[in-house]
Amino acid sequence: MSDPVKTAPRRALIVVDVQNDYDGGNLAIKHPPFRDSVVNVAQAMDAAAAAGVKVVVIKQLAPETSPVFAKGSHGAELHPEIARRSRDHYVEKTMPSAFTGTDLEDWLRANAIDTITVVGYMTHNCDLSTIIHAVHMGFAVEFLSDATGSLPYANSAGYASAEEIHRVVTIILQSRFAAVLKTGEWIECLKTGVLPERDTIYTSNQRALARSAA
Questions:
Q1: Is the CB of residue 148 less than 8 Å from the CB of residue 127?
Q2: Does the N-terminal or the C-terminal CB of the chain have fewer CB atoms within 10 Å?
Q3: Is residue 173 part of a domain?
Q4: Closest Cα partner for 98 from 9, 16, 184?
Q5: How many domains does the chain have?
Q6: 203-208 — which CB contacts under 8 Å span 24+ positions?
Q7: 167: Cβ–Cβ under 8 A, 6 or more apart, which residues?
Q8: Are 179 and 197 in contact (CB under 8 A)?
Q9: pLDDT tens digit sequence for 124-133
């Protein structure tokens, strides 16, 4: 497909897994705090609807025995702020990427979408997987860094706080995979038609080297 970032984008807002388990449940988002980021998700949905940008809501489902997102559980249900808002398409998934085993790609192609804007949870898991998958299929991607969040991990590879995970992943995404911006900035782009800033691996690395040498 043609390079979508050089012309006026045909966007869809992809709202990933804004479910109750992330809101103080068994997989509680810590950074940015869920109570703040979910407000930004809702604002992005409202702005998209006002601008004629199609909204796709994604929901993660797991077996009934799962500690998170178990089918039929309260934790698996969409957060009320998302459930009460209108949407143009709805997708249920079982894997991190919203494209795997779903009709999302077909729906985007059928609606002539060339750019997806990703919000929802989590920065480092389903958002990251969906974004990389989208880039490999030729879509341009935008990522709203204050309309998402992470949680801490500790395993055999080490420990990382929610803030560390979120910060590092957003830097990596901006270097190649997505235009990373805040919700307010994205809403302004919708109003003005200005395209968000994108970067490259090379220029990101050169700035880091210059910073180290300073």
A1: yes
A2: C
A3: yes
A4: 16
A5: 1
A6: 204/171, 204/174, 204/175, 205/175
A7: none
A8: yes
A9: 999 999 999 9
Strands 89-93 and 140-149: unpaired
CATH number, residue 203: 3.40.50.850
Tell me whether residue 153 is in a domain: yes
Whether residue 119 is predicted with pLDDT greater than 90 in this model: the reply is yes
Q: Find out whether 61 and 71 touch, Cβ atoms under 8 Å.
A: yes
The phi and psi torsions of 42 (rounded to 5 degrees) equal: -65, -40
Which residues, in sequence order, are CB contacts of 2 under 8 Å at separation 6+? 114
Instruction: Establish if 2 belongs to a structural domain.
Output: no
Contact at 8 Å (CB) between 178 and 171?
no
Spell out the SS3 assignment of 66-82. Answer: CCCCECCCCCCCECHHH
Could you tell me the residue range of the domain that residue 84 belongs to? 9-213
Is 4 contained in some domain?
no
